[in-house]
Design brief:
The protein is of the alpha+beta class. It has a domain of about 160 residues: Alpha-Beta Plaits (2-Layer Sandwich). The protein is built from ten helices and eight strands. Strands 6-3-5-4-7 form a five-stranded antiparallel beta sheet, sandwiched between helices. β1 and β2 form a beta hairpin. It is globular, with a radius of gyration of 23 Å. The two termini are about 30 Å apart.
């Protein structure tokens, strides 16, 4: 979808795909009787710190063809204020990990070209997104899509289980070596006859932790369906696959909607956020980025092959209203009020609205 240039400035027009949205409660809107709104990203949370989320990256090469124009201050604060401090940490780590300049530009400009729009009867905000695995708002949107897909598969199946598979590690072992061991062990487990008889389908997500003694502790969180899985049997089979590790957890999933939803939410958060940055130093974060480069965070199992690969085609259903950083102008007063009712935190990022004699009618 191509959106026209923002008012009051000249920049290239992007044709990026808008991200997925997270549904929220229905709110009354103003100008056209549109009802219902779909939310967007974790930027709608309260700002986590006083850190400035805006990151400026010098242009690399001519900008007349660049599909990711520079993000404005309003766009940057709206999308990234909820994780401003960690965003700067991630950006610094990406630079030290040696990623390309284009990727840094896309990361820094994630959320640019933001427009208030309608999708059917829903009020939404669409923008160009970087889809980087280390970008939290992008991964929040992906997480919602994965959670819904896993929830439906677990609810419609029988014998759902949550499994956790751990790997014994030693002091001084490097993360890339441990990840290779874990991948090979899980492949051997899936090749064993016991696994084929008990697990029909599922998905495994990687989590990486840094222990108190400095050891890396990657492990797998699995949601699977099929025959009942006994803890003792899984422990025995995992020991045979790893050669030295037998610590596993097995948690049955009840058939009710809440249990299925909780199981889906628990496992997919690791597919989009493999580790918590709060316990990592800058050096650890760089090492993790290098070790996870090219590695899958989510592994489909059995007949769940292809999960997480479908992306909704939303661009054709969007009708633009106005650019986000022009929402304070008088001609958009009614839409501004509707947007602020939908996303209250938006008010603190927009300039004070220009006075208008036109009365707002809900």
């Amino acid at each position: 979808m191509t959106r026209p240039p923002k008012c009051g400035r000249m920049r290239p027009v992007s044709q990026g795909r808008p991200s997925s949205t997270t549904p929220t409660e229905t709110l009354p809107l103003a100008p056209t009787g549109v009802a219902g709104c779909a939310g967007l990203s974790s930027s709608l949370e309260h700002p986590e710190t006083s850190a400035e989320p805006h990151i400026a990256v010098p242009a690399h090469g001519p900008r007349d063809w660049d599909e990711h124009p520079d993000i404005t201050l309003i766009e940057s604060r709206f999308r990234h204020s909820g994780w401003a401090h960690n965003r700067r940490r991630v950006f610094a780590a990406l630079k030290d990990a040696g990623v390309g300049h284009r990727r840094l530009e896309r990361f820094a400009n994630c959320g640019c070209n933001a427009w208030l729009a309608t999708r059917g009867e829903e009020l939404v905000i669409v923008a160009d997104h970087c889809h980087d695995r280390w970008c939290e708002p992008c991964q929040v949107a992906r997480r919602a899509m994965l959670r819904a897909e896993v929830f439906l598969r677990v609810r419609n199946a029988q014998g759902g289980r949550m499994l956790t598979l751990t790997l014994r590690t030693l002091t001084g072992q490097k993360l890339p070596d441990i990840l290779c061991r874990l991948k090979d062990a899980f492949r051997r487990l899936r090749q064993r006859q016991w696994w084929k008889e008990h697990v029909k389908g599922g998905v495994a997500c990687l989590e990486v932790k840094r222990g108190k003694r400095g050891n890396w502790h990657p492990h797998l969180h699995v949601v699977c369906v099929g025959q009942p899985v006994r803890h003792a049997d899984l422990s025995r089979e995992w020991l045979a696959a790893t050669g030295d590790s037998s610590i596993v957890w097995v948690t049955p999933i009840n058939g009710d909607e809440k249990s299925c939803h909780d199981a889906a939410a628990y496992v997919v958060k690791y597919a989009t956020k493999p580790m918590s940055m709060s316990s990592l130093t800058h050096t650890d974060l760089v090492a993790a980025m290098l070790a996870l480069k090219g590695k899958k965070l989510i592994t489909p199992i059995g007949d769940w092959e292809g999960i997480g690969k479908e992306e909704p085609d939303e661009a054709s259903r969007v009708t633009n209203i106005c650019p986000l950083d022009c929402l304070h102008e008088p001609q958009h007063a009614r839409w501004r009020e509707a947007a602020v009712r939908k996303w209250p935190s938006l008010a603190q990022f927009l300039p004070h609205p220009t006075s208008s004699d036109e009365e707002f009618v809900p």
